Amino acid sequence: MVDYHGANNQSLYSAGEQQTYMEQENDWDRDLLLDPAWEKQQRKTFTAWCNSHLRKAGTQIENIEEDFRDGLKLMLLLEVISGERLPKPERGKMRVHKINNVNKALDFIASKGVKLVSIGAEETSAKEGLLLWCQRKTAPYKNVNVQNFHISWKDGLAFNALIHRHRPELIDYDKLRKDDPVTNLNNAFEVAERYLDIPKMLDAEDIVGTLRPDEKAIMTYVSCFYHAFSGAQKAETAANRICKVLAVNQENEHLMEDYEKLASDLLEWIRRTIPWLENRAPEKTMTEMQQKLEDFRDYRRVHKPPKVQEKCQLEINFNTLQTKLRLSNRPAFMPSEGRMVSDINGAWHKLEGAEKGYEEWLLNEIRRLERLDHLAEKFRQKAAIHESWTDGKETMLTQKDYETATLSEIKALLKKHEAFESDLAAHQDRVEQIAAIAQELNELDYYDSPSVNARCQKICEQWDALGSLTQNRRESLERTEKQLESIDELYLEYAKRAAPFNNWMEGAMEDLQDMFIVHNIEEIQGLITAHDQFKSTLPEANKEREAIQAIQAEVQKIAQYNGIKLAGNNPYTTITPQSIDKKWEKVQQLVPQRDQALQEELARQQSNDHLRRQFANQANMIGPWIQNKMEEIGRISIEMNGTLEDQLTHLRQYEQSIIEYKPNIDQLEGDHQLIQEVCICQYTHTETIQEQLHEYRTSFNHFDKKRTGIMDSDDFRALLISTGNSLGDAEFARIMGIVDPNNSGAVTFQAFIDFMSRETTDTDTADQVIASFKILAGDKNYITAEELRRELPPDQAEYCIARMAPYTGPDAVPGALDYMSFSTALYGESDL
């Protein structure tokens, strides 16, 4: 760790030195007011500073006095700096319009508590904080001793030291000479403009040619360096966090690929083996059957044992991977479809099922060959007898002698037909025996099964035809006397069933179109349950609809078949089949619409519930532990009283107590190592806890003028600036809300320590990854491939580019990538 309090940078001034310095400052200020070159330098510096902000809005100024006269660009400058919208400017050319615009700008400045006259405590604190930051950053560099914002910067080495401290590749500091200030200043200004996007605000000749460079001009220039490097530090931290998260995912993906390969190979072997075991194709000779038996025994002795070992290893690998994912706070691994451990177990179970009866089948197959000839002969005998009986029966059944017969003749034909039906029923058993013998021959794989099946099929088809012809003839004989009674009964049945069904459909349509409002997952699940119950009634309702329509169809069929002309509609109801069909179609359309609406609401409620649970679990585990440790550190830091020797003794005692407690910390670190074993990123600027606390305590004591352990908001702002925090009004207000929630106007050392610990601690969450990407993206809602390649190592940059979906928001540009969905997918919170 660099010693920021070494020989180069002592405390600012002693009491006597400060008095002398203030008198000299007043003399210099009087001389500057009379120096025309000073006014020119002021104008040039302020113009460059204004343009560094105005270029963000696509404009600039040339002459401060003229370009700000109408107030338009002055208002635009304030909007860029504050990030807020000012009142709409007046576009007129008259003097009153210009005055009104300038007044609007001045009113906005006054509303922010900015004083346009004199220097207040807040500005002094900010200056002191910026000076302390410069001293810390330049402390290790020879010939640099920053004590102010004028003489200390005149030789240009301090500017070069600031750049080299943060971007050493841009400056060869060892080649700079203290006696060549113009070269040093030009080098720093050109590098800053070219690589750091800091506009050139001063000329080297103006600084070197002045006895005392203008303090405000130097401060303005240095503040640009401060903001540039503060943002770069945040980007580096964000990149490191992303690298750590991506390293975990890349290693896990490698393990997943290994699992997929091993699972695929094992399943492929099972897929090839099962058909062989399931092949029950019989052979025609005993020798061929014996060879099948020997091949099966060779499979059990040689081929299967290695695959049993592969299956056990696959399950071990899967469980190990799932443990790593759980310990690294990642979603569980879901193998490709069909490659789950359960799928492999299922396939293996199917394999063992296939081989289970294979050996027994081989032995039975030998006995089967002996039975086949006997069954085949029995089939041929029974088939011949049946074919003789059926000869001429179809001709008898298809004659239409009833069409011209009288009623008495029809009754006689009915009696004769009943006698034939009795004979037909008696032959049913013979047909079933023939079919059973053919089925048994089939099951025993009789070599001539095709011809047996063909003959059996012909007999069965002929038998079915006889049964159909027999039924048709009876229906033809009975149809005439029953036709009118049947139609009337059908009409009445239609009316009885159509009315309640019609009422049910109307009520269903009203319910399906009813709006719903829910506030939690239980309410939406209740609606889904009710909807599912309704859907379960649809099959029965459809059966009822089909039955009602069948009644009407039967009426039409009877009338058409018998040549009956219906007098009109159903006399018992006005509900038509067409109206039933139309309402039923409407119900069918509304059901999926209702399904979609309910599922969308369920998904939204589940997402909300998941986010709440995730936040609560992490907060309940991490929060109490951190709070307890930070309170202990805060008490030790605040209670440092007495001489330096006493304080050193106290700190050594506290250090010894930490060492004695170290076995517990080692145990905790061991557990943590299991979680982070593949997530280690190298941090070149990592500091120990003791060093970080010492720096925080030193910074706090420097601004704690009264040595009370409490400071006001102005001193606290200067303290934050000295620690590298880039502050605007909104950001400072946010921080004050954290460290001073009661608005007391005072900040304690414990509150400061808690805030710095929270700001610098990494948390492995999707929100922090999103925030890190947002920093790399320059606060945009998307990021580009160019930005990823600039900020991340090549392999991890390409990893992100290959997996990020295109960004489709309203502010999207060509090539924009969606880092938010990518980050949530890393933690299983999306479908990426």
From TrEMBL:
Which PROSITE patterns does this chain map to?
Answer: ACTININ_1, CH, EF_HAND_2
InterPro entries per the record? Actinin_actin-bd_CS (IPR001589), CH_dom (IPR001715), CH_dom_sf (IPR036872), EF-hand-dom_pair (IPR011992), EF-hand_Ca_insen (IPR014837), EF_hand_dom (IPR002048), Spectrin/alpha-actinin (IPR018159), Spectrin_repeat (IPR002017)
- Asked if the record carries the keyword Calcium, the reply is yes
Q: Provide the alphabetized UniProt keywords.
A: Actin-binding, Calcium, Coiled coil, Metal-binding, Repeat
Q: Which residues form a coiled coil?
A: 410-444
Q: Which residues form the Calponin-homology (CH) domain?
A: 40-123, 124-230
Q: What is this protein called?
A: Alpha-actinin-4
